[in-house]
Amino acid sequence: METLNVRRMLLRIGTILLIAGRLSGDVLGADTGQALQAGAVAQDITPLDFPISVNGNMADVQATGAHDRLHARCLVLANGDTSLAIVVCDSCMIPRELIDAARQQAAAKTGIPAANILISATHAHSCPTVTGVFQSDPDQKYSQFLITRIAEGIELAYCQRVPARIGWGTVDEPSQLFNRRWVAKEGETFEDPFGGRTDRVKMNPGYSNPLVDRPVGAVDPQVSILSVQTREGRPLSLLANYSLHYVGGVSGAVVSADYFGEFATRMARQVQAGNAAPSFVGMMSNGTSGDVNNVNFSLKVGSKREPYEQMGVVAETIVQAVSKVLGEIQYLDSVPLKVQDAELELGVRVPSAEDLERANKMLSETSDRSLKGMPLIYARETTLLAKYPATVKVRLQAIRIGSLGIVSSPCETFTETGLAVKKDSPLSRTFTIELANGYNGYLPPPEQHRLGGYETWRARSSYLAADAEPKVRESMLKLLRAVAE
Prior knowledge:
This protein is of the alpha+beta class. The protein folds into 3 domains: about 1-30; about 30-175 and about 215-345 and about 390-485, no CATH class; about 350-385, no CATH class. The chain contains 10 helices and 23 strands. The strands form 7 sheets. An 8-stranded mixed β-sheet has the order 7-6-5-1-8-13-14-16, with helices on both faces. The protein has a 4-stranded mixed β-sheet with strand order 18-19-20-22, covered by helices on one side. A 3-stranded antiparallel β-sheet has the order 11-10-12, with no helix packed on it. Helix 4 crosses helix 5 (about 310-325), helix 6 packs across helix 7 (about 375-385) and helix 8 packs parallel to helix 10.
């Protein structure tokens, strides 16, 4: 807290000097109003108290400790016209009300407009619960702690701004990506948790499953890179974006940042960041990975890995891919920054009266506190989803950094959506950060809804109307067109 207060005092002094410099014309780049400043901070968000509920499982898991530290990794960019922040949190998913609170606090502390702050979750399945889904309920004390820590992280990054330069690029790394939705062989169908048997797709079908034919969707092999350096060329921060679900392999009841945290640690070593102050901040955001994971079910049998080994393999693979092109990135010390933030109202698949009656009957016939089996778990989801309104408002956002576009989705977004946005974007390079500025479950395209499968099953993890994806996609492109003008 003492360090934060000192930085706040320095910020006030710096602001006075900055204004004086502008008046005298001595500020670097004052003639253009576009000279870039950047600051980055990895704010620790590891729980202070254990045990704590962990998101990402069908049954609640109570973590008793931390295998590695969790962070909210914050990057602030500013020029004479615009300031913005991009935050990537080691969290499974973060609800909009929590993110809105953090945005408002950060805006009050820094003057960055709340609409210019993007806050996302990595979707690691080994992080504290702040969003209720399946049998994990939010830890209210940790939720409030997370709001404060995110806001403080943005403020610290803002206070640490230095003259900077920025560049971006891409590299393909397909080796770690596999579409997890497999279509059934002709004549085969699969059962859903509501008593039906019409699904034509099975998620994670297992190795050598004779009932499935092939993956039904694509993968996006592209690693998008946003690299920030001091004006002298020292690495300050690197944001990567990759369309891959969490990896897992966590041993025991502990929290872990998964491969997202491993990437940040290894990237710092790769760029030889050392102990220079301010510290280098590596960041890995989740792209459009709603139907993609790290398991190749086309093999007859999978390979055995030790705990935490696979997340290290994935992280190192991406680090090495990024390193191949990092030296080719062209840096600019002056870029336009633009942000557009908007709401979109979407329908909700609220359970019918018959659905609710069936669910309540099933739950009344069991006394188990921890529900076993998908039918009972989804029966509970049905009773909770029945309390949802008929429509919800979701927040979308687009950021332009020079000729680079970044667009957000509050959903677990399918790869085909991300690929379509990249293809139709008016900017030369574009990527999507999913699970940003809220959590609204899976976003299957209409055809995927017709095929069925886990990602379409009605629950708090998948509740938007079947026509939501085209509306979200068009709104994302509309925002990109607005910032590209």
